[in-house]
Amino acid sequence: MQIISLYSHINTPILLLKHPHSSSSSSSPQQQPHHHNPNFHSNKNQSFQNPTSKKPFFHQPNSSLFQNHKHKLNNKHSSLPSLMLYYTENALFHQAQTTWEQLLNSSFNPSLNFISKLFKSYSKHRKFDEIIDILHSLNSKNSAFLPQFYLLAISCFGNAGNLKLMEETTNEMVSKGFQMDAKTGNEFLLCYAVFGSLNEMENAYGRFKRSRFLIEENVIRAMAYGYIKRRKFYELGEFVRDVGLGRKNVGNLLWNLLLLSYAANFKMKSLQKEFLSMVKLGFRPDITTFNIRALAFSKMALFWDLHLSIEHMRSEKVVPDLVTYGCVVDGYMDRKLGRNLDFVLNKMNVDDCPRVLTDPFVFEVLGKGDFHLSSEAFLEYKTQKHKLTYRDLIKKYLKKHYRRDQIFWNY
């Protein structure tokens, strides 16, 4: 089709359209009129424009958006896991189930990271049946990570306190020929120590020993707390002996628990005997070790033993903490021996800043003394800008103690 520019009698250019198959189409460019629109050829490759707005009627598609959309289509399988995690996090379980079915019908191979996040999301909403269904559907995938998927499910059930499902899943995993590793075994025992009864915990510990795994420190603490909160101190002592007092990778934890089991019932001879055995085997007493003995000496008014213990601390270069000062102050004040406090305090650095370094499980058994509780309350609500010392705390406590013993008559 050709466009020919003509001029009318009013000197206005007129555009005529001629079909290429018409008779005029055979005319050469030299036969075209001399007057034509000079801007036509320069704009023939441009888009058709609105003469008023000068904007194209038809816009070319945005190539970057098109490529991004194409990229999303190509990565359909990689976006579905993220979508499913979003559904489970927001409790949209019906949509999550539909998405999971799409993933199963695709060539998607779930990763450990994805399944871990998925199980945690379902566990947070207490949707344990969905975890079991997903675990069973993963069996058909024949994934190389299937043993790890079982371990993730066991960990989720245990952390949520669902010991029954944890036990059933463990038995199912073992029946398939998969072995439990040391980490999961410790988590298994930890869950029974936290959520199970004393008999369940001990039975789980018996199975754990037969697996010949090494029990970790946090599990030892959890089991020890299980005995302590039930006031089973004899069983606590037997437990730490069974674990092995010669272990040094947990520090003095086992020895301190053993000493605490005797101090709880104020078996002073056994306490001293085991302390000497500890030192003889090459274990260096720490602040918790000394404070277990100091608390027992203070409550039993064994002041000479308390003095010797403080001297031993100085020789071992163990710095006393707030618990140690509390043993001294409470021991003397409870027996109306406040005037003799300087005899002991002169051997201690009362100008240090107060701090508590004793292991918290000691307080679960022997509690906190009156000086310790009063000092903590004062330090929590203190308004002074300067740092307080043990000397300041002792002065304030003695002042409060003397006022408490006075009788005021109101007339």
UniProtKB/TrEMBL annotation:
Protein name (Swiss-Prot/TrEMBL): Uncharacterized protein
Organism this protein belongs to: Trifolium pratense
